Amino acid sequence: MSFIADYYNYWIVVFLMMTGFYIVISASNLVKKVVGLNIFQTSVFMLYISMGKVKGGTAPILTEGATQYSNPLPHVLILTAIVVGVATTAVALSLIVRIKEEYGTVEENEFENKDDAI
Amino acid sequence: MIEQHLATLPIILPLIAAPIALILGRSMLTWAFATLVSALSCIASWQLLMITLSDGALSYALGGWPPPWGIELNVDVTNAFVLLAVSAMSTLVLIYSKDSIEKEINTSNHSLYYTAHLLCLTGLSGMLITGDAFNLFVFLEISSLATYTLVSLASDRRCLTATFRYLVMGTIGATFILIGVGMLYMKTGTLNMADLSTKMAAFESNRTLNTGLAFIMVGVSLKLALFPLHMWLPAAYTHAPSSVTAFLASTATKVAVYVMIRFIFSVFGASHVFETMSMEIILMILAIVAIFKCSYMATVQSNVKTLLAYSSVAQIGYMVLGISLVSIPGLMSGLIHIFNHALMKGALFMAVGAVFYRMGSVNIEAFKGLGKKMPLTMAAFTIAGLSIIGVPLTAGFVSKWYLVTAALEQDLWIVAALVLLGSLLAVVYIGRVLEAAYFQEPPESQDANNIKEVPWLMLMPMWILVLANIYFGINTSLTVEAATSASQWLFQGYNPAGVAL
Q1: A47–B contact, CB cutoff 8 A
Q2: Chain B closest CA to A62's CA: distance in Å?
Q3: C-alpha B258: how far from its chain's center?
Q4: For all residues of chain A together, what is the average pLDDT?
Q5: pLDDT over threshold 90, residue A116
Q6: Taking a C-beta distance cutoff of 8 angstroms, is the pair A47, A15 a contact?
Q7: For residues B334-363, b (16+ Cβ closer than 10 Å) or e, as one string?
Q8: Which listed residue, B6, B99, B257, B480, has the most CB atoms within 10 A of its CB?
Q9: Cα A65–Cα A71–Cα A75 angle in degrees, nearest 5
């Protein structure tokens, strides 16, 4: 039981990661795929952020009475990764808009048939 | 002043130029400007290669923060060598694209094309020379996002779905690398590659680090399209504009191969990856399957761009095979092939783009009788094709020769024989195109008067690459010298002869 309790942040990460991964693979709607991709990326953000926590440490701001601080570096890294994730989502969504314009659908199995017809 | 900051130029120049290219608009000016910037970073890379060949590796602390706290740029012979190939290819492709994109990309998107190309160059150069594992991920995503934009610019609507699949696969690959880097950081508390490798040496065999290695290897393999993670590549290469395909085929996957080499040798250490984890067996099997499966797939395609895309996956197999031999000559053949493959695939895709420019199709039917109508283009295709096969006096022969020698040195007769058999499959798929071009009559219905040679701005870069193929096939001093010193440097402190396979 303590194995689950001690590592609960990793269990959340693994659960989110697998959920996102499964959606990416199984969904045929492109928007749902992007949602899955986002959940998948978010799990990695959680992984980074939770690893920066130091037991008994406060926020990394110089204050009186604090001797231990959490590690701020993973948070900074993940800010960059979040920006990258936002950019990826933006590109993916704009691609979906273009796909909708050209094919009239965002369902993967439907536009595959349309290309075979040509 | 400039010499002091030379290492930053290949990244900074295209990065600053990209938004300027967007502002310049759709005129000729954008093209000239982008080409100029790319040529400048090519000159800077050449300088860097010369400096590293004579003085050894070069380190640059970005923003004046000393490593391992700040981000370090690390230029050594290996990445200066690949950097030169990438920036030279970028310049040639930009020269080529002026006429090529007229037919394939809407005029309103031309400035976007140049902007995305410059951003892609920024990302690729950054991936090559950064000495920071997290920074590598950021540059990887810069180049990937630019690549998605480039692929989706084609006027054929199928490029959109191909791009979407590429984006999903690419993002998963990049996120895997991010997870892997996170695991390394968890255990060591550092992101600087040199610092990582010293700190990791303290752990004998740690589960977190090994999981990190697994994530990074799978992520990088997705990016370099190692069989069976190559599924995104044929579709993306087929439907992208020709000049984009020429650029990506000759640079993007090669840079990913370099990232793999970098992680194996300068972060995890060859002895850990190969002796403790036995990674070379997995890589060797996948590489050999890639060579055969994808060469075979290439022989049955009717679209010449798809054919060459499958051939690219097979060629990546040769590079990874070189790495998996775990010896200085093996790694050297892999590095030489990175350079030579850029030369030949660049020329081949440019020739196919030239055929599209005149015929409006790249099916094998469109090539019928082109030997007479477009003699220069088809001659370029022939010579570059011979180079892919590995005929003597071409660059392809040099890399295959070193690969076979390296395999024989370790008494791996089967591997050497398989490499030669794989080349026979290349004879088949290149031969099919040449047969259509030289021995078949063009269809009667065609308006024969319209089919003539392409503009000289398309022919020139194509022929520069073809001549480079011949030059580096005869005079191997630059490639072999750089690759030898690079692989010796990577293998330093590690005795590859002790590896039993």
Answers
A1: yes
A2: 20
A3: 9
A4: 86
A5: no
A6: no
A7: bbbbbbbbbbbbbbbbbbbbbbbbbbeebb
A8: B257
A9: 125
